[in-house]
């Protein structure tokens, strides 16, 4: 049974002979009523604080759930971004390797072409040297023939030539 301060204040005891002092009982009942009233207020205040605390806990649990969900989503997104970055890096590396391979092949082909050109130029140089030698030999033979003809000519014609009638080469 729940007692309220009003119940305590309105309590009336039967009076008997040689019973308790009514004023003393009345004062004690008033003190008890005040104490119970304070306790009831404190209990009500505690219930209100408990309700607020429970609301806060519920809000914090909701925030915690939201943060946990956000953290999981963020972690999943970070993992996806890492995977995408790895795939992109691998793709870039493969493209770079392919380009490097193509450039290397192109450089090799260009080297082969340049080496062929060098060989062709060397052949042309040798041919040119041989032609020049052949031309020089032809001129040398012509000079020898000229010298032979000059030596075979009679001296009279030589004097004529010295006189100025013959053109010099």
Describe this entry's structure for a reader.
The protein has one domain. The chain has three helices and no strands. The longest helix has 131 residues. It is rod-shaped.
C-alpha end-to-end distance: 157 Å
Strand content: under 5%
- Largest β-sheet summary: none
Note poorly predicted spans. Answer: none
One letter per element, helices H and strands E, the order comes to HHH
- Count of individual domains: 1
The outline comes out as: rod-shaped
Q: Which structural traits does this protein have?
A:
169 residues; single chain; mainly alpha
Brief rundown of the structure:
The protein is mainly alpha-helical. Helix content is 87%, strand content 0%. The chain has one domain (5-150).
Topology:
Elements: H1 5-9, H2 22-152, H3 155-165
């Amino acid at each position: 049974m729940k007692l309220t301060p009003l119940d305590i204040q309105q309590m009336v005891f039967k009076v008997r002979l040689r019973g308790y002092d009514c004023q003393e009982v009345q004062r004690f009942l008033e003190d008890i009523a005040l104490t119970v009233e304070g306790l009831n207020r404190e209990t009500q205040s505690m219930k209100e604080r408990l309700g607020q605390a429970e609301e806060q806990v519920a809000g914090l649990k909701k925030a915690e759930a939201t943060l946990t969900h956000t953290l999981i989503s963020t972690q999943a997104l970070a993992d996806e971004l890492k995977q995408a970055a790895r795939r992109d890096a691998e793709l870039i590396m493969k493209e770079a390797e392919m380009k490097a391979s193509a450039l290397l092949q192109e450089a090799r082909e260009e080297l082969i072409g340049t080496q062929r050109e060098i060989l062709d130029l060397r052949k042309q140089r040798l041919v040119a040297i041989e032609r020049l030698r052949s031309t020089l030999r032809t001129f040398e033979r012509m000079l020898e023939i000229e010298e032979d003809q000059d030596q075979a000519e009679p001296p009279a014609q030589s004097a004529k030539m010295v006189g100025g009638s013959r053109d010099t080469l």
